[in-house]
UniProtKB/TrEMBL annotation:
Gene Ontology terms for molecular function: formylglycine-generating oxidase activity; protein serine/threonine kinase activity
Protein name: Serine/threonine-protein kinase pkn1
Keywords: Kinase, Transferase
InterPro entries: CTDL_fold, Sulfatase_Mod_Factor_Kinase, SUMF_dom, SUMF_sf
Sulfatase-modifying factor enzyme-like domain ranges (all copies): 36-313
Enzyme Commission code(s) on record: 2.7.11.1
Species for this entry: Shimia thalassica
Pfam families: FGE-sulfatase
Amino acid sequence: MQPDTKKGSCCSPSRSAGADTPLAAPIATGGKRIPDDAVHIPGGRSFTGTSRPEIPDDGEDPVRNTRVKPFRIGATTVTNAQFAAFISETGYVTEAERFGWSFVFWMQVPEGLGPTLGVKDVEWWRRVDGANWRDINGPGTMDAVWKPDHPVVQMSWNDAQAYAKWAGGRLPTEAEWEHAARGGLGDVRFPWGDREPDDADFQPCNIWQGDFPKTNSAKDGFVTTAPARHYEPNGYGLYNVVGNVWEWTADAYRIKSLKKHVRQRLATMKGYKLSKGGSFLCHVSYCYRYRIAARSGTSPDSTTTHQGFRVVWPE
C-alpha cells in the first residue's frame, strides 16, 4: 500500500509546540554583509500559492495576488563556511548545542551509537545527543560529513534569525521566496517549469529516489545534502531553491481553512514558522513538498539534518 501523498510528511519534526526561544545572547547588526553573488530580484506584481494545489490542507491555494518591493537574496542557502564565520565573530551558540541534541534521519545515525528515540508517526527521525551544525549526524561525525560548501543544517528559526540580523538582512517572506523561486516564470510547479523529477532520467534537484524511507538509490548523486551551488540555477540565478534543504521564512505558519480537521491541526501548531522548498528527503510518493507552492510548519526551536535558510536584503 502506497503512503497517502496528501497526508504524508518527511518534513521537520518539532522539538516543542511552544513559542520562540530567547536567543543565547543579543546579536548586533554589523552592517550589510551581502555576498558578492547575491541576486537582485525585481519588484512588482506577483502572487503566492497556486491554482493547482496538490496538498490543499497545507494552504497551497488559492492564488493570492501581492506586490513585492525589489530586494537581494542569497544565490544559495547559507553555507557551513558562511555560518562558521558568523560563529567565529560572535561566539553564538546554536539551539541544538544548547539543548544538547537534535534530530537525525535514521539512515545517517552513526553506527555503534546505540538505541535512539524516534518521533511518533515519523519514526525515521531519531533524537541524537550531541548532533548540531558541526557534528551534523552526532558526536564525531564532523570530519566525515561537514563540508564548507554545503548548506548549513541543524538550524532553528531562531538561529537563522540571529545569522540574518548579523548579516544586516532578514529572512524572506513567503511572497518574496515564491517570487524569487519562480525565476520570472508564472504559475509553475518548479523553478525550471512543470516537468516532474523522476527516479530514472530527470533529476534537476536533490530529492529522494526510491522507496521512502527505506531505500534511496541516490540517482541524483546525493544521499544527503548537495553543495549549496549545484544543479542549474533558476531564471534569476538562484541555486537549489527546491530540494536539498528546507528554507525558513520570516512568516508564521498560517492556513485559512473552514475544514475542522485543519483547524484542529493548526491549534496544536501555535507559534510555528513557515518553511519552503522541500529537501533531499522529499519524494512524490510521500512528501510532495518540493514544489514552489508547497508549505511546511515547524516550531521555531526545532532542528534537523535538512533544515537551512537563505537571507534577503532590502534594496
